[in-house]
Amino acid sequence: MVSVDTTAIPGLLVVHLDVHGDNRGWFKENWQREKMTALGLPDFGPVQNNVSFNGTAGTIRGIHAEPWDKFVSVAAGRAFGAWVDLREGESFGQTFWTELNPETAVFVPRGVANSFQVMEDDTAYSYLVNAHWRADATYTNVNLLDPELAIPWPVEITEMSDKDKNHPMLADVTPMAPKQTVVLGANGQLGRALRKARPDFLFYDRSTVDLADPATLDAVPWDDVQTIINAAAYTNVDGAETPDGRRDAWAVNVTGVAALARIAIEKGLTLVNVSSDYVFDGTVEEHPLDEPLSPLGVYGQTKAAGEAVTSTVPRHYIVRTSWVIGEGKNFVDTMRRLARDGVSPSVVNDQIGRLTHADELAAGILRLLETSAPYGVHHVTGGGDPKSWADIAREVFVEEGRDPADVTGVSTEEYAAGKLTAPRPRHSALAQG
């Protein structure tokens, strides 16, 4: 029976395989996705299989940390495998070694350096990797013979490359940085909040990556990315009802998201896509996670389609939110300006929902990622009792020293008279979850 053991190196797993032998030789399932992921191995998505043939016992290779995951084993002979954690963090320099034979394989996560010495002539060492080899890949290496590592190579070294001999000692190694999180829509309210919370992420604004032009996604170094947070969107709700706006909304919110989904599936990435209360028709006071989608206008329709596309990615988070305010143009900012300018506005009083500060939304997204929350749909909004836009405007006026009675509440129909406006949900509150 196949079994898996953990090791002192986080994520480095030893797999004990079933080998079936008879008078003809032996057979094994070297990698069986369904069985091994059920036992806790990552579903790492191998795309290339490499074999290293070593004719002479004592041949030694390594120690190399590559920017991809590996699943190593032997197809013939025996080898002594040794691994060193060269990733940033507390486990840097941690070692592990074991013998590799047809019954033993090891899953090696990105940034853990791999090496082996063959113990028999004509040993074939095999490894699956989840990224195609490329000439510009950056490896992190450490010397096979570093006394600090104290690896007990079992036999006399017979063959070793000059390149391996000249690898640095552990004390001189620069640790491999983790894969990165990319944020698209860096100049939006959410993008700015994420930048404040995690300035170490990679941020792209529309001038570099524009989802209306998926070709611009080539600017991102996808092989070094682990997570995509899509904070970019076409959000002009009324403008989406025009012919040009309709095309633009579908280009950004659907076609662009589909391009992200393809990349995420191909590279095995996590995709976070931010959605909206506008995917609902607003006929219930608070929308649960599993409510069927029923968008009223073009903007809501594109966000609903974007959710469907995102759901095809195995590792995905659809984050619905509502009424976002933050750094940049928003409803509260507009009401403050009107209050200060002495204006007494008419504001809709029959659309009910909750404000969500961009900082709250950013924190909620980061919490999902940091806690490895279940993939799927999540609602991340502000708390408290739902209020109308007019109620919120009056609160802003009070904060600015104005009389709340200076805000006149009007119906959606009254406000929309004579204007090109999109249909909007009357109830936008999202059930938390």
From TrEMBL:
Question: Could you tell me the Gene Ontology terms of the biological process aspect for this record?
Answer: dTDP-rhamnose biosynthetic process
- Pathway where it operates: Carbohydrate biosynthesis; dTDP-L-rhamnose biosynthesis
Q: What sequence ranges are listed for the domain RmlD-like substrate binding?
A: 181-431
Kindly give the CDD domains that the UniProt entry links to this protein.
cupin_RmlC, dTDP_HR_like_SDR_e
One of the record's GO cellular component terms: cytosol
Site positions for Participates in a stacking interaction with the thymidine ring of dTDP-4-oxo-6-deoxyglucose: 133
Q: What Pfam families does UniProt report for this protein, alphabetically?
A: dTDP_sugar_isom, RmlD_sub_bind
Q: What is a GO molecular function of this protein?
A: dTDP-4-dehydrorhamnose 3,5-epimerase activity
Keyword terms, alphabetized: NADP, Oxidoreductase
Stated EC number for the protein is: 1.1.1.133
Positions of the catalytic residues: 64, 127
Q: Which residues form a coiled coil?
A: none
According to the record, the residues making up region (Disordered) are 403-433
UniProt keyword Oxidoreductase present = yes
Biological role stated in the UniProt entry: Catalyzes the reduction of dTDP-6-deoxy-L-lyxo-4-hexulose to yield dTDP-L-rhamnose.
Family from the record:
Belongs to the dTDP-4-dehydrorhamnose 3,5-epimerase family. Belongs to the dTDP-4-dehydrorhamnose reductase family.
Q: What is this protein called?
A: dTDP-4-dehydrorhamnose reductase
Native source species: Aeromicrobium camelliae
Which lineage? Bacteria, Bacillati, Actinomycetota, Actinomycetes, Propionibacteriales
